[in-house]
Structure formats: structure tokens, C-alpha cells
């Protein structure tokens, strides 16, 4: 049997057995589809867009389009790798296979850190959304949200999936409803908006009212809004018919970006001038308040709270799985690879939730700047992870060309050129981080994090814990 045949055989076994990693394939196709949709709709859009609009004006729409193209390339590259070998913890797995043990170690721990930071951001804004109705300190809400999502993830993957399905349904319904309502405002004059017209997109200072440079700098915020689209890769080990399901989820990404990001922003900045939106306030809530619909702002605020809960739910799910993958490779304490009787990595989930408590502490110390600090950290981490996906894809394609690995039937168009262009885009965003305070903070944190994980890897090596790779697909699950 050739090396290519062996890989193909292993992947097929994973598909058919459904429990090769010890997980239960409890995520149905409809759940995976909604997780994919929900991953593309989060706090970065609902909450972070206010500051982004204030900074870039209508040019923000172009920023989302440009970033969306890069994200689609990344996801198609990931989809090709997943078709070749669908496994849970895919980013770390592919880094291990194509770049070596150190790369897998850094990628796995970095993705864990990304979602820990993202979940901190979500519980931060959850506290702000609740303040719309009640005078409660944000850190209290953050702690309660974290506790509830933690408990839900401990029960079963099916419960996580069902919760995410309904969270995503609410978000999708709300955005489509807002778009339709906005179209009604623009076409028949529905509501009480001051000056609803499509010309707001270019008449009030132009498309680049604050200059082209400010529009580039907003890419940091834009990329954070896309964190989560790669979550479908983590679900591979628990998805039914992973090749078919994941392929469909990735193929619909351009439509989701066009509707939920570009479409929503066009409507928002047409209904009202971009100058009316500011950092710290959701543009979605502001639009409904300006239209003058009784109770609508409160309803949308509830939807925004749902989005935060959804993203936090996903964060706890993904971090628990990534810690288990690292543990199975001997790159995290062995206790983290244990599954409960319901096939849930309960110790990994518990450890991740404990780390997320830092977000509660940040809310206590600096509630006004908590969101900006945390999102900047998450952005630098996800840029690295997405970059690793692209590099792994380049190496995979090179090995396929040499006949060492089987070619997937789901391929990234334009590769390797499209892969290289996406990498260049990510490199541009890293350079732009140096021009903002929050970006520089992210770079510093990224350097510190790189030093920490490198020291951790060297420590494991010296202790003799990094000798020999353990393949989760062939590991007997510890319980």
C-alpha cells in the first residue's frame, strides 16, 4: 500500500467509524450548517462595527469585502485539508503533519488562546447588553454567562449543537429582518429616520471620509469579526458525514459574507449617515432607535446578547477539544484527554473556562477598555492560525504534486497563487497593527505569547514528554 493510499484509508476509517477519536458524532448536518452561519455572525459585527464605522465610514464595506475574499480562500484551503483528512483539532493536526511537532504545539495552544480571548470579549459585551435593561455591573453578567455556557458544554455535544442551532437561527432571523426593514425605510419611507437614502454611502464626505489610511487600519477590527468561521474545522471529529457537510458549509461562505456583513452594513449606513455611529454602541440598536419603532431596540439588544452567548458557547466548545488534541500529542497534561461518559472532554472544558475567568477580572479592572484590549489579542492569534492553515495547504499541494499524498476532490481555486495572496493580506494586517495602540498591544502580547509557548515546548522536550507523536485517530480514549 502506498503512502497516499494509507492516508486515504485512514481518513475513510475516521468517516465510517465515527468514534476514532473517542467522540460521538452528535452534530447533524443542519447543526453544522447553522454553526457555520453562526460563526460568521458575532460580536465583532454587532458591537465592534460601531467603532469601525466611526473610523472608516462607508469604506468599511470595502474592508469587509476585501477581508471576506481572503477568508474564503482560507476556508477553501481548510476545506481541502479536511476533505483529505477530517479530524477534530484540525489546525494543530495539519501543522503537526506538514510543519512538525513544534508548529503543531504552537498552533494548537495559539488557537486555544484565541478562543479564550474571544470568549472574554463576548462575556464583556454581554455585560454591556444587559445594562440596556438593568443596572448591573458588567463583570457580574460576565461571570453568570460564563457559568451557564460552561454547564451547557459539560452535558453533551448534542446540547451544544442544539443551543448553537437556535442561537444562530435568532441571529440570522434578526439580520434578515433588519435588512428587509431597512429596505422598507429606503423605498417607502417607513419609520422616522432623519434622512434615509443610499446616497449616504458617498455623499457625506465620500466613501473614504477619513482617508484611505484610516480605512486600512480598520482591518484589525474587521478580521476580529470573522473569528469563528473556521470553527467548522474543529467540529470535523463530531460531525456526521464530515466531508459532505463541511464542504457545503464552506461553499455557502461567500453568500453569508455578502448578506450578513456587506448587506447589513449597506443598509445601516444608508438608513442613517455614518457620522451617527460611534464606538461603544451597537449600530444595530442605534438604527432601530432612529427609525422610531417602539421596543425594536430592546429586541435587537436581546439578539445581540444572543450573539454574545453563541460565540462564548462556541469558544468553550472549541477550546476543550483543542486542549484534548494537545494532550493526546503529549503537549498538554495527560489528564486533559479524558472524556466523560457522554464523550465530552470535561477536564479540558473546565480548564478553559477557568482561564476565561480572566475576562471577568479585566472587566472589573478596566471595563471601558476591556473589549478593545481583548479583541486585539484575539486578532493577532487568529492571524497566526489562519496563516498556518495556508502554509499547511501549500505544503499539502506540493506533496500531492509529488505523488506522496492523495489529491482531494474539493480544491481551492487558483492555488497556490490564491493561497500566497491570502498570506500576503494577513501579513499586511500584521504590519498595520503597529499603527494603532490596541494593535501594538496585540503585537507585544503576541511576542510574549510566542516566548511562553516556546519555553513550554522546550520544557516538554527536556522532560522527555515530546518524544513520538500520538495520533488521536489511533488512541484509545481515556475515561
How does this model look, in words?
It is a single chain. With 479 residues, this protein is mostly helical. 70% of the residues lie in helices and 0% in strands. It contains 20 helices and no strands. Helix 8 crosses helix 16. The longest helix has 33 residues. It starts with a helix and ends in a 17-residue tail after the last helix. The N terminus and C terminus are likely disordered.
Order of helices and strands: HHHHHHHHHHHHHHHHHHHH
Quote the average pLDDT. Answer: 81
Structural class category: mainly alpha
Number of strands: 0
Largest sheet: none
Give the N-terminus to C-terminus distance in angstroms: 34 Å
Instruction: Give the % helix.
Output: over 70%
Strand content: under 5%
Number of helices: 20
Amino acid at each position: 500500500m502506498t503512502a497516499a493510499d494509507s492516508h486515504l484509508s485512514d481518513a475513510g476509517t475516521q468517516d465510517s467509524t465515527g468514534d476514532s477519536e473517542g467522540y460521538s458524532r452528535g452534530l447533524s448536518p443542519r447543526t453544522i450548517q447553522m454553526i457555520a452561519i453562526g460563526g460568521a455572525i458575532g460580536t465583532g459585527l454587532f458591537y465592534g462595527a460601531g467603532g469601525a464605522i466611526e473610523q472608516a465610514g462607508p469604506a468599511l464595506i470595502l474592508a469587509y469585502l476585501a477581508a471576506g475574499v481572503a477568508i474564503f480562500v482560507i476556508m477553501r484551503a481548510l476545506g481541502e485539508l479536511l476533505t483529505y483528512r477530517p479530524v477534530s483539532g484540525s489546525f494543530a493536526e495539519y501543522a503537526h503533519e506538514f510543519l512538525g511537532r513544534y508548529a503543531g504545539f504552537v498552533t494548537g495552544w495559539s488557537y486555544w488562546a484565541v478562543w479564550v480571548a474571544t470568549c472574554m470579549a463576548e462575556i464583556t459585551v454581554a455585560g454591556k447588553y444587559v445594562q440596556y435593561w438593568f443596572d448591573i455591573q458588567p463583570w457580574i453578567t460576565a461571570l453568570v454567562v460564563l457559568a451557564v455556557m460552561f454547564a451547557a458544554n459539560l452535558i453533551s455535544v448534542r446540547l451544544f449543537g442544539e443551543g448553537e442551532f437556535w442561537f444562530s437561527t435568532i441571529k440570522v432571523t434578526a439580520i434578515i429582518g433588519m435588512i428587509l426593514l431597512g429596505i422598507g425605510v429606503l423605498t417607502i419611507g417607513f419609520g422616522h429616520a432623519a434622512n434615509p437614502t443610499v446616497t449616504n454611502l458617498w455623499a457625506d464626505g465620500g466613501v473614504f471620509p477619513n482617508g484611505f489610511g484610516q480605512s486600512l487600519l480598520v482591518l484589525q477590527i474587521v478580521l476580529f469579526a470573522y473569528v469563528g468561521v473556521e470553527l467548522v474545522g474543529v467540529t470535523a471529529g463530531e460531525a456526521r458525514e464530515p466531508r459532505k457537510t463541511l464542504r457545503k458549509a464552506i461553499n455557502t461562505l461567500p453568500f453569508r459574507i455578502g448578506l450578513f456583513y456587506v448587506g447589513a452594513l449597506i443598509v445601516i449606513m444608508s438608513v442613517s449617515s455614518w457620522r451617527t455611529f460611534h464606538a461603544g454602541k451597537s449600530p444595530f440598536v442605534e438604527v432601530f432607535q432612529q427609525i422610531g419603532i417602539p421596543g425594536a431596540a430592546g429586541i435587537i439588544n436581546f439578539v445581540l446578547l444572543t450573539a454574545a452567548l453563541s460565540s462564548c458557547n462556541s469558544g468553550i466548545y472549541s477550546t476543550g477539544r483543542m486542549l484534548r488534541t494537545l494532550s493526546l500529542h503529549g503537549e498538554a497534561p495527560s489528564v486533559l484527554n479524558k472524556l466523560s461518559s457522554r464523550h465530552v472532554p470535561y477536564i479540558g472544558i473546565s480548564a478553559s473556562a477557568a482561564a476565561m475567568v480572566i475576562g471577568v477580572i479585566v472587566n472589573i479592572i478596566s471595563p471601558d477598555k476591556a473589549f478593545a484590549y481583548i479583541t486585539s489579542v484575539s486578532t493577532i492569534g487568529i492571524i497566526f492560525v489562519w496563516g498556518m492553515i495556508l502554509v499547511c495547504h501549500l505544503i499539502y499541494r506540493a506533496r500531492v504534486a509529488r505523488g506522496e499524498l492523495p489529491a482531494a476532490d474539493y480544491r481551492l481555486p487558483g492555488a497556490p497563487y490564491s493561497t500566497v495572496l491570502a498570506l500576503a493580506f494577513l501579513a499586511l494586517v500584521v504590519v498595520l497593527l503597529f499603527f494603532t495602540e490596541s494593535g501594538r498591544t496585540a503585537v507585544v502580547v503576541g511576542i510574549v505569547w510566542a516566548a511562553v509557548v516556546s519555553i513550554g515546548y522546550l520544557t516538554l522536550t527536556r522532560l522527555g514528554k515530546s518524544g513520538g507523536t500520538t495520533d488521536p485517530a489511533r488512541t484509545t480514549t481515556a475515561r
